[in-house]
Each structure stands twice: as structure tokens, then as C-alpha cells.
Design goal:
The protein has 238 residues and is α/β, with parallel strands linked by helices. It has one domain: Vaccinia Virus protein VP39 (Rossmann fold), CATH 3.40.50.150. Helix content is 36%, strand content 19%. It has seven helices and seven strands. Strands 3-2-1-4-5-7-6 form a seven-stranded mixed beta sheet. Strand 1, helix 4 and strand 2 form a beta-alpha-beta unit.
């Protein structure tokens, strides 16, 4: 009843539908992306927990339907056949869904050992069930220590950490883009620290999306050649 009073019947029904779709997704492919895990039950350096942004101390995956809507928009933009990187990939839901949209190489970076193991199991189960050839890779690492590869062109963030860590991750992305110039996008879900990216000179806001109150801010890197700026089709927020 609390959800109904706060959000209204329409949003509450959509949330219920999303939950059903997500559980069906898990059942269909033999996955575990829905179950909740408490932060205190995971093997994580306690000094790092202050920089994590989790919902009331729980692991929380990106919602399936808004994610698909966002990736559908991304797929309309001219892009190279680069890899997708999900910082704070959790159980790997974003990696799996990205494979539906033509990404042949997807990589997840996750600090918690237990979540890395689950993500790897999910990727293996999904490949076995679907027969897709996507190259899935899950890296157990602090996001700030991840070395950005020259073939990575889409960086996904589900508000996984605080402003300080975000700044370091952005520095690492920008360094890779300077050393290996290429067009790249950052998809920032629940963009709490969006202003931190807007204040930088190396990225600019391309588009904001809102699907059922799930917000995404899409950024691109600045290039000398204006023709390389991504172009997006107009999208109706819901």
C-alpha cells in the first residue's frame, strides 16, 4: 500500500509488471539476477564500502525493461563495433541484455567476489541456453584500478559509487580515449552525480531519457571531428 500511495496505481502496476518480466527472464535462461544480497554478506574491502551506492545496503540490479529501452536508443546511434563495459556489474544483467543488441564483447567490473562468481555463472548459463557467441568477461576489481581497453566504446554506470570514485573512473576513461582516439558513450543510470560529468571538458551531455521514472543520462566524448558526434533519434520518455 505504501508504494501505491507514493507512486500511484499506474507506476505501481508497471513496477509489478517489471518484476514479473525479470523473474521470467531468470527462469527462462536459468539465471540468478533478481535475488537480493546484503552488502554486509559480501567479501568487500570495508574501506571501499563508503564509496558504494547501494539501495539500503542491498545489491540492486538495473531494471530490465528500462535497460532494454535505453539500449534500443543507443543502438540507433552510429557506433563502432566496440565493447561495452559495465562498472559495478553485479550479477551481470546488463551484460546479458547488451548481447541482445549486437554487442559482441561485453565486460563487467565488480568489486564483490560473490557477485563476480554469480555473474560468471549467469553468463555461462545464458550462452549455453541461447547459443550466442558474445564474449562475456567479468573482472573482479576496484573500478578505479580497471585499465580501460582501446576497443571499449560504451561505458555503463548504474550509480554504483560516489563522486570521488566516479571522478577517477572518468579520468581513466578519458585517458584511454586520448591515447586511442575513438567515439565513445557513457550511459549513466540514476545519474546522482551527473553534474560531475557535465563540469568536465572531455564529455558532454547528448540526451536524457526517462522510462517509467528510471532516468538515464547519455554522454559522449568530445572529438576534434564534429562528424563523429553520435546522433540519436528522438525518443518519447515514458
Amino acid at each position: 500500500m505504501t508504494s501505491l500511495r507514493r507512486a500511484g496505481i499506474g507506476v505501481t502496476l508497471v513496477r509489478a509488471y517489471m518484476s514479473v518480466q525479470e523473474h521470467c527472464f531468470d527462469l527462462r535462461y536459468g539465471l540468478d539476477t533478481c535475488s537480493r544480497l546484503k552488502l554486509r554478506h559480501l567479501t568487500i574491502d570495508r574501506a571501499a564500502t563508503a564509496n558504494l551506492r547501494w539501495d539500503r545496503g542491498y545489491y540492486q540490479p538495473t531494471r530490465l525493461l528500462p535497460l532494454r529501452k535505453m539500449l534500443r536508443v543507443i543502438s540507433t546511434a552510429p557506433r563502432t563495433d566496440g565493447a561495452l563495459v559495465d562498472f559495478g556489474c553485479g550479477k551481470g544483467r546488463v551484460l546479458l541484455v547488451a548481447s541482445e543488441f549486437g554487442f559482441e564483447r561485453v565486460r563487467g567490473v565488480e568489486l564483490a567476489h560473490e557477485l563476480c562468481e554469480i555473474a560468471r555463472e549467469n553468463c555461462a548459463a545464458y550462452k549455453a541456453k541461447t547459443g550466442i557467441t558474445t564474449d562475456f568477461k567479468v573482472v573482479e576489481s576496484d573500478a578505479t584500478r580497471y585499465a580501460v581497453k582501446e576497443d571499449e566504446t560504451l561505458f555503463f554506470l548504474f550509480n554504483p559509487f560516489g563522486r570521488k570514485v566516479l571522478s577517477t573512473v572518468l579520468d581513466n576513461i578519458a585517458l584511454s580515449l586520448r591515447e586511442h582516439p575513438r567515439r565513445a558513450l557513457i550511459a549513466y543510470c540514476n545519474p546522482r552525480w551527473k553534474q560531475s560529468i557535465e563540469q568536465r571538458t572531455d564529455f558532454f551531455l547528448v540526451q536524457e531519457l526517462n522510462f517509467w521514472r528510471h532516468r538515464f543520462a547519455i554522454f559522449a566524448n568530445r572529438l576534434h571531428d564534429p562528424s563523429q558526434v553520435p546522433e540519436f533519434l528522438p525518443v518519447q520518455s515514458q
